Amino acid sequence: MRRWQAIPVAALVATLVGGALFGVGRPTAHAAAATDWQMYLDCDTSTSGIQDACIYTTGTTSVDVAVVLENVSGDDTAKVSSITFDVLGTSQATFAPKAGVDSNLDGNPDLNQAGLSGSWSCSSVPPVPDQDPSPSTTDSALVCYTVSGGPTVAVGGTLVLGTVHYTSIDGIGNFSLSNVSVADEPGAELIGCNVPDDPDPTRSTIGNCFDASVQVGGSETATATATPTDTPVATATHPPGTATSPAYVTVTPTGSPSAAATPTPAAPAPTEPVSGGTGGTTGGTTPGGGAGAGSSGPIRLPDTGTQGAAAGSDWMSIAIIALIALAAGSAAGGAYFGLAHVRGTRGGGR
């Protein structure tokens, strides 16, 4: 390695060592803890597992959407003792909540009595099939609690808390959870999400609540109203070995256009200046380059390592000769002035 090449290496080593020493004793940031409990909407209760995108055959007149709790906490001792949730729908015309059988355990939303052990009650705040005054959207609300007992959920297991029953026609609808709070037997919250005007939205029990979408029939004209997401732009693909020119963008006509589509010129890709060689468009006075035509390119440092010993020998020889000449000149100058001083001293002594 040439000595001048060692300078940036030494600087890099010094920077790394300094950064390591600067970091000693400073607090380390930790990633946010994983959510202990999660909530899902299952739009096909007849199929095993959780289905969040469901398609029913045309003419289906009844659809159920279940609210499911999942335990990912690593602890299976917590007992579910209170349940609060709203299920919001985007299309009342397509999915209209049915009336409940009663105003307690068999309302709509319908508490999952078969899966929830304990003495449950939903009468204090009766289930509401649709409390949204809008004629286009729905809000089905359930608030229930148990005065004794309560089910536990195995680690990695799920538990259906309740179900919303809808009459349906062909079309599409999206469903989401709101105002969710599930607590254990002492009353400590296990999970909360999408709580309007939440006084503590950063508390550790805030968890993930997942949506669902349902389509009845195969109508391609139905449009779902979904939460806006960043949609990646489609990228054209080409067969292996096919070069794509950066200077043109191919326009694909649709329908029956009256005139053929014309390729649209795009800005040419910038060309990296080429150093070395016997000529070229960068040309000029670039060290190591040729005397080609064109505007001058950026001046580059000589390469004394990558092209072998001969590539940098001239530059190194010039530097060594210059240093030797400087040293010789300094020595000669010192000798001259020293001799003059001695003669002056002798002359003064006379």
Description:
The two termini are 59 Å apart. The chain has helices at 3-23, 309-349, and strands spanning 37-42, 53-56, 62-71, 80-89, 95-97, 110-111, 120-121, 138-146, 158-168, 171-184, 189-193, 208-209, 212-216, 248-249, 264-265. It is built from two helices and 15 strands. By secondary structure, it is of the alpha+beta class. Strands 2, 4, 7, 8, 10, 11 and 13 form a seven-stranded mixed sheet that branches. It is elongated, with a radius of gyration of 39 Å. The longest helix is centred in the last third of the chain and has 41 residues, at 309-349. It has a domain at 41-216: Sandwich (Immunoglobulin-like), CATH 2.60.40. The chain is 18% helix and 25% strand.
| Uncertain stretches | 3-34, 220-263, 273-313, 339-350
CATH architecture of the domain at 41-216: Sandwich
β-strand number: 15
Mean pLDDT: 71
Task: Describe how the helices and strands are arranged.
Layout: H1 3-23, E1 37-42, E2 53-56, E3 62-71, E4 80-89, E5 95-97, E6 110-111, E7 120-121, E8 138-146, E9 158-168, E10 171-184, E11 189-193, E12 208-209, E13 212-216, E14 248-249, E15 264-265, H2 309-349
Parallel strand pairs: 1-12, 2-13
Antiparallel strand pairs: 1-3, 3-9, 4-8, 4-10, 5-9, 6-9, 7-8, 10-11, 10-13, 14-15
